[in-house]
Amino acid sequence: MQERTGTVNIVNIFVVTVCEPPAMSEAVTEPHRAGGFLESSCAASLDGIVDTANESSGEESAGEREEEMSAHDEAASSTKTTEVPAGRTSNTQTVSTQRPNSLQVHAAGEPGLWTSQGDAEVKLRMGDSGLAAETPLTVNQMFTSAVERFGDHTALSWKEGEQQKSLNYKEYYQTCRTAAKSFLKLGLQRYHGVGILGFNSAEWFISDIAAILAGGFAVGIYTTNSPEACQYVAENCKANIIVVENQKQLQKILQVEDKLPHLKAIIQYKDALKEKRPNLYTWAEFMELGRDEPDASLDAIVSSQKPNQCCTLIYTSGTTGQPKGVMLSHDNITWTALSTCRHVRLKDATVSQEVVVSYLPLSHIAAQMVDIWVTMRVGGATYFAQPDALKGSLVNTLKEVRPTAFMGVPRVWEKMQEKMKSVGAKSSTVRRKIAVWAKDVGLQTNLTKMNQSGAAGRTPLSYKLAKKIVFKKVRKALGLDRCTKCYTGAAPITKDTLEFFLSLDIPLFELYGMSESTGPHTISIPEAFKITSCGKEIPGCKTKLHNPDEEGNGEICFWGRHVFMGYLNMAEKTEEALDAEGWLHSGDLGKHDENGFLFITGRIKELIITAGGENIPPVPIEDAVKEAVPLISNAMLIGDKKKFLSMLLTIKCQVNADSGEPEDELTPQAVELCRRLGSNATRVSEVSGGRDRLVHAAIQEGINRVNEKACSNAQRIQKWIILDRDFSLPGGELGPTMKLKRPVVVKMYKEQIENFYKELATPTTPDNPLPPK
Ligand SMILES: Nc1ncnc2c1ncn2[C@@H]1O[C@H](COP(=O)(O)OP(=O)(O)OP(=O)(O)O)[C@@H](O)[C@H]1O
Question: What is the model's pTM?
Answer without folding.
Answer: 0.82
